[in-house]
Amino acid sequence: MGKVALITGITGQDGAYLAEYLIGLGYTVHGIKRRVSLFNTERIDHLYDGPEVKDRKLVLHYGDLTDSMNITRIIQEVQPDEIYNLGAMSHVKVSFESPEYAADADGIGTLRVLEAVRLLGLTEKTRIYQASTSELYGLVQEVPQRETTPFYPRSPYACAKLYGYWITVNYREAYNMHASNGILFNHESPLRGETFVTRKITRAASKIALGQQNALYLGNMSAKRDWGHAKDYVRAMHAILQQPAGDDYVIATGITTTVRDFVTMSFIYMGIEVEFKGEGVDEIGVIKSINEDKFIEAVGAEYLDAFKARIGQTIVAVDERYFRPTEVELLIGDPTKSKTVLGWEPEYDLAALCEDMMKSDIYLMKKDAYLHKGGYKILKNLE
Ligand code: NAP
Ligand code: G4F
Question: What is the value of pTM for the model shown?
Fold first, then answer.
């Protein structure tokens, strides 16, 4: 019999990659999804079979981390060997607008999962992974950040996750539970939500090259992040729960890059050189040159002439609306413990991550434009 895993937040970026990874390892995966007015299972549809199929590898349950009765009932029904608590209101900027909700879902939500396992008498059987975050380091007290670095959260999101972190440690110590925190630094992918900065950039860069968007507006371009690929990071989540005892681990690449440099990389993938001028809110990015062969290979010859006409124009600018009341300026993790204890090594570097995201977004933006122009009618007629 394979193991049974329960994933909260299965419809999100990490939930989707983790579900695929665990199914590949022979797990039966149960996921909790919220009831929403439109389908939001696009990231996991390829893994899902209808209830008529026998021995399904992926089973979905309606639920919400703000509803303890629901969480307790699902855990009782599923009797999981492993729980991955990935569900969260995960957007730092949005948490300033919905601080109470972030505290409920991200902070108390974690308690609901832990307490359900305890009350159901599953402390011996069920191992728990808590999706902790490098945002806990906030106003960083040490560079690079490691497991022992003191926390200094800088947003309602990070404050909520701070509670999630410590209640996980407390349940491990108080009830001898196999409960662990993965302190994950930023990880991205083609499945990343569209409003996180890397995906916002790769989508906008693709649209700008295809002539669908004029410019990209960003907040603090000097912020530095330690970015990895979500595919690599879900392997670490699983490895953490295979250890003999619960513990806390930093998962990071150890390399930090500014938002500005990620913009540069994304355009360079298409042969477009962007020159940054000015400072603060007046900073702009202008098209300096085009490597035509690279542009044709990445984007397509039919878009080249229109794009060449834009040389010298501004394609990146600052919009203060994207600034945060309190910012996290620098994150860089020290993954020594996860490398030594878990044997974890990332396969993607930042260039490979950026390429993966750009390839996917150029393809998606071309497909969207085709559908908007009435291409769906052509597809329908062909069926
Ligand atoms: P994501 O794409 O935003 O996915 C979040 C998931 O949580 C979605 O499935 C969402 O459902 C679900 N969710 C939101 N509120 C919920 C609630 N009240 N009850 C149940 N489910 C709820 O985030 P992600 O990037 O995959 O991140 C996964 C986890 O890791 C999150 O806890 C995040 O805070 C944490 N984390 C992420 C990173 C990163 O760089 N990606 C780094 C460190 C930690 P809907 O689809 O219905 O919205
Ligand atoms: O992509 P971001 O929104 O990610 P952030 O705030 O670092 O949070 C992500 O990573 C955390 C791990 O450290 C997770 F816990 C969390 O759930 C989430 O996945 O912003 C990255 C940086 C910030 O400094 C932000 O101010 O990019 C800066 N930025 C500049 N312009 C922008 C923008 N961020 C967004 N989202 N949009 C902008 O236009």
Answer: 0.97
